[in-house]
Design a protein that fits this description.
With 74 residues, the chain is of the alpha+beta class. The protein is 32% helix and 23% strand.
């Protein structure tokens, strides 16, 4: 399980496109970007969704994005 110290969270305006995204950084840490247009509750849901991608090591599998998203839904 990843430590929270390995995750940087930023709230930015994505417009009306996506709720959130996560990237892996050069040092092995992660950055989660949450859409500023979401409510607090929606941002928390998006944050938890992106954390599941990190915790499931989705960055280190060869599955398609679609397969990762399907596997990551509650």
């Amino acid at each position: 399980m990843r430590l929270l110290d390995d995750v940087n969270v930023q709230v930015i305006d994505f417009g009306n496109s996506i709720p959130a995204t996560v990237t892996i950084n050069e040092d092995g840490s992660f950055s989660i970007f949450l859409n500023a247009r979401l409510s607090y509750e929606q941002r928390m849901q998006a944050y938890l969704h992106e954390m599941r991608h990190i915790q499931k090591d989705d960055f280190f599998t060869h599955n398609t994005v679609e397969a990762k998203e399907l596997h990551n839904k509650h």
